[in-house]
Amino acid sequence: MEVRVRLTVSTMRVAGRSSTPPGRGVRNEARQWAHRVADASAGGQGVVEFALLFPLFMALFFGLIEFALAFNATLTINHASEEAARTASVAGNMAGADCLILQGIEQDVTTPNDRR
Q1: Is 4 a member of any domain?
Q2: How far apart are CA 89 and CA 47, in angstroms?
Q3: How many domains does the structure of the chain reveal?
Q4: Angle at CA of residue 29, ends 24 and 33, nearest 5°
């Protein structure tokens, strides 16, 4: 962002004295003043951009976490059903086979932070 400022000699001098050190012109001081104004307004622009983009990034981040938890739940159920099918094929028509299958499913299906 470029700020163009026109300053006259009268605005740069106070009571007949120059506010610039000897050897520096009014033009150089005007450039410095313009850069200071541009730098001061750039800080506010960054805050506004942050305020607009931060909720978007947070929604994206939490969406990613929710997707990971849903995918973990799907994998857990698939693993539990495979183990139950294996247990059923081994147990066959044994008495209490259904209890063994349900016990295996209960052991396999846990929350993600409840692993032993």
Answers
A1: no
A2: 63
A3: 1
A4: 165
Q: What span, in angstroms and rounded, lies between the C-alpha atoms of 56 and 94? A: 56
What's the full length of the chain, in residues?
A: 116
Is residue 114 domain-resident?
Answer: no
pTM: 0.52
Instruction: Please give the single-letter amino acid code of residue 17.
Output: R
Between the alpha carbon of residue 112 and those of residues 15, 65, 77, 93, the distances in Å are 76, 12, 12, 33
pLDDT tens digits for 19-51?
555 556 677 777 777 777 666 666 678 888 999
At residue 18, φ and ψ (nearest 5 deg) are -80, 140
Our measurement of the distance from residue 33's CA atom to the centroid of its chain's CA atoms, rounded to an integer in Å, reads: 36
- Written as six digits, the tokens of 5 are 């400022």
Tokens of 81: 């059903």
Rg of the Cα atoms in the chain: 36
| Integer Cα distance of 77 and 64 in angstroms | 20
- Domain range enclosing 14: 9-108
